Amino acid sequence: MKAELLSIVPNPVLAVYAHPDDADVACGGTLKKWIDEGSDVHVVICTKGEKGTKDPDADIKEVAAKRRSEVEEAAAILGFSALHFLNIDDGEIVNDETLRADIVEIVRSVKPEVVLAPDPTAVFFSDHYFNHRDHREIGWAVLDAVYPACGLPKYYPDRGKAHVVSAVMLSGTLAPDVFVDITGTVEKKVTAVLSHKSQISGDEESVRDAIEHMAKDAGGKCGKAFAEGFRMVGSLGVF
């Protein structure tokens, strides 16, 4: 039995991720597909990415500036309407009132139909990788901000008019139940991810192979050449 394919294009869309390269890696093909089909896509980047280096002598301000430049290049490739920077230090994301209020304010400003974020329940991937704490913390913060806070006016009344999000789509999940066909946009995803040169170890062909391998695996679950899978919470009325 084939998994369900998302059959409409939500608009507008808000993607909330921890690090500068996360959205491109997690759902760049989906975001590009929706943009090409008329969607207005905003991306929130929570950290500065300043600790994303293996060089002990690196200047963190220079690393942060480099990573911001890289994400701006990738955003231009994919066609994002706007980037929103929260400028939290790497490794210091905390699902607290400050972060939730900031997310609520952006959601209420953008008024997205759907919000994308990391699945915070996905921790262990096989026996060689476990999920980054920043990913888990931002995933929980997004869920807590979207429901019930964003839709109820007494939550953070100074952060804009209440807005109800129709659905949250969680990437990097161990339990995908909806897929997006990215056959026509996987190449743009690869190009965007390759913009994050400071984060690439090894050659570009290896990065391309890794991205295509994951997209082929997801595609095989829904009958498409390439896809991205998500855990959907809520309903877009698409099935």
Automatic annotation (TrEMBL):
GO terms for molecular function: hydrolase activity, acting on carbon-nitrogen (but not peptide) bonds, in linear amides. GO terms for biological process: glycoside metabolic process. It holds the Pfam family PIG-L. PANTHER family: LMBE FAMILY PROTEIN (PTHR12993:SF28), N-ACETYLGLUCOSAMINYL-PHOSPHATIDYLINOSITOL DE-N-ACETYLASE-RELATED (PTHR12993). This is N-acetylglucosaminyl deacetylase, LmbE family. It comes from Ferrithrix thermotolerans DSM 19514.
